[in-house]
Design a protein that fits this description.
The chain has 479 residues and is an alpha/beta fold. It has 18 helices and 8 strands. A 5-stranded parallel sheet has the order 6-5-7-1-8, with helices on both faces. Strands 2-3-4 form a 3-stranded antiparallel sheet. Helix 2 (42-49) runs parallel beside helix 6 and helix 6 (99-119) packs antiparallel against helix 7. The longest helix has 27 residues, at 65-91.
Length: 479
């Protein structure tokens, strides 16, 4: 006995099932379209709506009304396109209906990319991390299973998918309501930098410039250096300076490491307390203490009558240690939220683009995060060159965003045009991009040195080059 054809997009029943009307079918299609479009932007929602105190500490500003407005507009536009596809699938012939699985496959690929970014977050346990390549392989496998199942059982697969979309539809009004609430209650005041310390008059009797290169690896720079890597500026500096080899990390992660380096204590744990502070747990103390209340190298320098400054990234020094700093600039780390722009028009376009790339890899060349990282590095280097030549500053911290990924340096061209596409990344098993990042560190050391030599500040300044931690991803030499 012939089975009735399911009433789903892509199949037109000869007789409408009992209780089914064209109007109700349209409403179901609209609900499914909205639900599917909403799920497609799952990662963007997760970033914009995340107000967890462990996350907001690292942000320069919270998500702006423009970001929420752009997201809701994008979802409505995508919903309209999906709805039209559904309606065409109902009314058109087999040729058009065959396009419906392709639509689901595209959205599935976007969802897999979103999920692997959420799962692979560095804040999660290593147990839950999934590498980019493995996640995409899983996604392709799911897509193949979907196609085979559709070929075997036809519209039954689509009926199951549409049922799931209907069950997930309540998330649409929930997320939109939260977005509207955040837009109407937007208040960035908690993220503002704090008031800086009053500077001491006159020139500094002594000057120290402390440069931290984030994720600069001791082993790969010196004893295990790749034969293709040239670091003339670092070698020149090392040959005329004290060089420590019996060293260890102050912490595996930047927050722990920098808190330990600035306080002089080994930090065994940190807990962020919203945008304005975090608590430290020292290995030699049973009680936790706020970083802003802990004595640091900056407060001790102030006690000696020295002006202090920081040009840094990742950590909000200017709102945490502001009372011990007389000058400060800082940049938040690059993520897909803060790399989409500030104006509504560019955010609209870049939110859609971000669905098809990761912070480090993009089918369009440089990812949005990589572009922001390169721009941030240029701004920081300019600020660093100006700050190192201020003779009124006795202690200056330069916490630079290299050689940390996303990698930006193209070794062959000698510029910041490095791009990592998913295909190139899949075959680059040696992670040679980090080798280029080491050469950018060398170039940066040279730029700072030339600037100071031209200003006449190099010879009377103590320069300390160091790192917060070594390379944490697989090494280029496979060790």
């Amino acid at each position: 006995m012939a089975q009735p054809v399911a009433n789903v997009p892509g199949a037109q029943p000869a007789v409408a099932p009992q209780g089914t009307t064209k109007k109700s079918a349209r409403w179901r299609d609209l609900a499914c379209a909205l639900s599917l479009a909403n799920l497609s932007f799952l990662r963007v929602w997760a970033e914009l709506l995340d107000d967890d105190r462990t996350y907001t500490f690292w942000l320069k500003t919270p998500a702006t009304p423009a970001h929420f407005a752009a997201l809701m507009i994008n979802i409505l536009i995508l919903s309209a396109l999906i709805f039209v596809a559904f309606r065409l699938g109902r009314r058109s012939g087999k040729a058009v209906r065959k396009l419906i699985p392709i639509l689901f496959l595209i959205v599935l690929a976007i969802l897999v990319n979103n999920l692997q970014e959420l799962i692979a977050s560095p804040d999660r346990s290593v147990i839950f991390r999934i590498a980019y390549q493995e996640a995409m392989i899983i996604g392709v496998g799911i897509g193949i299973v979907f196609v085979i199942a559709y070929m075997i059982s036809g519209t039954r697969v689509l009926r199951l998918v549409l049922t799931l979309l209907l069950l997930l539809f309540p998330f649409v009004p929930v997320t939109f309501a939260r977005a509207i609430w955040r837009m109407t209650h937007y208040d960035p005041s908690a993220f503002a930098d704090g008031t800086l310390a009053r500077p001491f008059p006159g020139l500094a009797a002594r000057r120290v410039v402390w440069v931290i290169f984030d994720e600069w690896d001791q082993q790969l720079t010196f004893p295990d250096r790749d034969a293709s890597v040239r670091l003339p500026q670092i070698d020149r500096f090392r040959n005329s300076a004290f060089h420590a080899e019996n060293v260890y990390e102050a912490g595996r992660f930047t927050g722990m490491s920098m808190a330990g380096l600035t306080s002089g204590h080994m930090v065994k744990g940190i807990r962020t307390l919203g945008p304005r502070d975090l608590t430290l747990e020292f290995s030699d103390s049973p009680s936790a203490i706020d970083w802003s209340k802990q004595q640091t190298v900056f407060s001790r320098a102030r006690a000696l009558g020295l002006n202090t400054a920081a040009v840094a990234w990742w950590i909000p020094y200017c709102r945490i240690l502001n009372e011990s700093l007389t000058a400060c600039e800082w940049w938040a780390g690059s993520n897909q939220y803060n790399s989409t722009g500030r104006r509504l028009g560019e955010i609209l376009v870049n939110q859609i683009r971000s669905l098809m790339e990761t912070p480090a890899r993009s089918p369009f060349g440089q990812s949005l995060c990589t572009q922001r990282h390169a721009h941030m590095y240029g701004e920081m280097l300019g600020s660093a060159e100006a700050m190192v030549n201020r003779r009124d500053i006795g202690l200056l911290l330069l916490h630079m965003p290299i050689p940390h990924k996303p990698y930006i340096y193209e070794r062959e061209r000698g510029d910041l045009s490095y791009r990592s596409t998913p295909i190139l990344s899949f075959f680059d098993r040696r992670r040679t991009a980090y080798l280029g990042a080491l050469e950018l560190v060398d170039s940066t050391v040279g730029e700072i040195r030339r600037s100071m030599e031209q200003a006449g500040t190099w010879d009377d300044t103590t320069i300390l080059l160091s790192s917060d931690h070594g390379l944490r991803s697989p090494r280029p030499d496979g060790k």
